[in-house]
Amino acid sequence: MLIANPIYDVVFKYMMEDLKVARTFISAIIGEEVEELDFCPQDITTRYKEGSVTVVRVDFLARIKTVEGYKAVIIEMQKALLSSDIRRFRRYVGSQYQSTNNEYEDENKIAHARPIYCIFFLGHALGNNKIPVLTVTNQVKDRATGTEVKLRHEFIDSLHHKSWIVQISKLKEHRRDDLEKLLSIFDQSNITDSNHILNVNEKDFPKQFRHIIRRLKKAAEIKEVTEQMTAEDNLISDFQNLERVIAAKEEVIAKKEEVIAAKEEVIAKKEEALATSQQVLATNQQALATSQQALATSQQALEVLQRQVAEYQLKFGTLDGSSA
Fold it and tell me: N or C end of the chain: smaller count of CB under 10 Å?
């Protein structure tokens, strides 16, 4: 079956705009049952173009079924194709924490913050690990013993968000569970003659996910989606060209900085040698001054002695008995 490549922003957005697909997709990633899902009104999809990064962002308000009942959480999804910008991710997560749209009032009109779940799709790997999906949890432990504490509280859930990181480049290597089978829709080893289209076997996917595959098949047949994928290709190519230009300029700057650093090192050594010479000169001058002071003291003592001898001779005569 030929499906549109969801690594493209336009395809990813098209896939997630179907709330049934989005509900199934998110439930599989977070391992919790999402019963209701709505796009957050303040931000449906935003494309960022900062430096060499293209990112699609999709936010949902989810109602999740738990053993205690239901909870409402913010689901924040970001997909970075070319490279990761940690500062930009931090800024956006920070804005989510600050937004009053992510709060609700209880029956006593007291405001509470909804928990935030972050899902990141990265086109590059984090280090040398081979794990396609990483889970980062807000686990609570006794600091002294390291024992996990089964503590759930609004303070913890509101200030320490859970995250899931999908490393797209690592998906080819694993099909260990249903989630990894589902995420194989991002496996770029399935590319056909066109980067826009992947060739997959619908039977390779668990039945509960096959409506997602059919959604992507439909996307591949929509002319506007294909045109926008081509536009993304051009945009990515422009970014890559810009990266090469920037890299070349940075290399020239780095070489100039090396030359400047070498010159500064030579100057520093000369200044150090000059400082040493000046210190030796100052020490010699101090020794000379001390010697001159000792000589002056000796001369002064000699003059005193000569006066005393002269007075003695005047009073008693010379040693041979003659008068002075």
Answer: C
